[in-house]
Amino acid sequence: GAVVSQHPSWVICKSGTSVKIECRSLDFQATTMFWYRQFPKQSLMLMATSNEGSKATYEQGVEKDKFLINHASLTLSTLTVTSAHPEDSSFYICSAGGGLAPETQYFGPGTRLLVL
Amino acid sequence: GDSVTQMEGPVTLSEEAFLTINCTYTATGYPSLFWYVQYPGEGLQLLLKATKADDKGSNKGFEATYRKETTSFHLEKGSVQVSDSAVYFCALVGRGGTSYGKLTFGQGTILTVHP
Question: Cβ of B99 under 8 Å from any chain A Cβ?
Fold first, then answer.
């Protein structure tokens, strides 16, 4: 099946710094990628949808200036958490869709972010 | 908006027991329905899906039937194994309005299977 990777798998940073998370589709071209946030023992919440070559569409309540998303190519999307604070600590998951089956998204393994 | 409600967990079973995890949904139009599984330390994996009413999705011994009349998509397995221990998410892809093409997840159900 399709493989989606994320890097890094976990990161610890100081409050006020920025962190970039990469999401790559390894064996298919993803016209659309999604970014989710998962709190402990809770469901995934969609943060934004990114389409290659255009601006991301953010869900209501998600600060677009804090969570910068770039989808520069058909195999790479990045999420940058700017000026991170402890409340941004979470598990961030990307998924890639389009191409193979528009309604089926393939998920990355997630990135755990801890902001001290 | 669209929503998915799952049976609350955690669910603890002995090996070879029968499993049911209930899932009901609210959506505009006729969504596609999914079950995803998340094993410890791994990303979500698609377990099975159904795209229209009365479709039955199946994989690895798991089954779920798209019931439009009861807006349900319950997950079942006749005989669970220890390796089935994971978190299971019911989800839908919306067909209407701002939900179109977006996955909406239930809260997840933790399953633990003991030998």
Answer: no
